[in-house]
Amino acid sequence: MTNAHFYPIGTPGQPWGDAERAQWRAAQQRQRSYFDDVVIALEQLPDDFDVVQYGQLDHAPDHYPLFAVVNRDWNPALPTVLVTGGVHGYETSGVHGALQFLSDKALGYVGRANVIVAPCVSPWGYERIQRWNREAIDPNRSFRDGGQIEEAASLMRWIASRGDALLVHLDLHETTDSDLQEFDPARCARDGKELVPETIPDGFYVIGNSEDPQPAFQQALIAAVEKVTHIAPADANGELVGMPLQSPGVVWGESRSIGACAGFTDARYATTTEVYPDSPRTTPAECNQAQVAAICAGIDFALAQVETSPKR
Question: Which residues are the active-site ones (predicted)?
Answer without folding.
Answer: 274 (proton donor/acceptor)
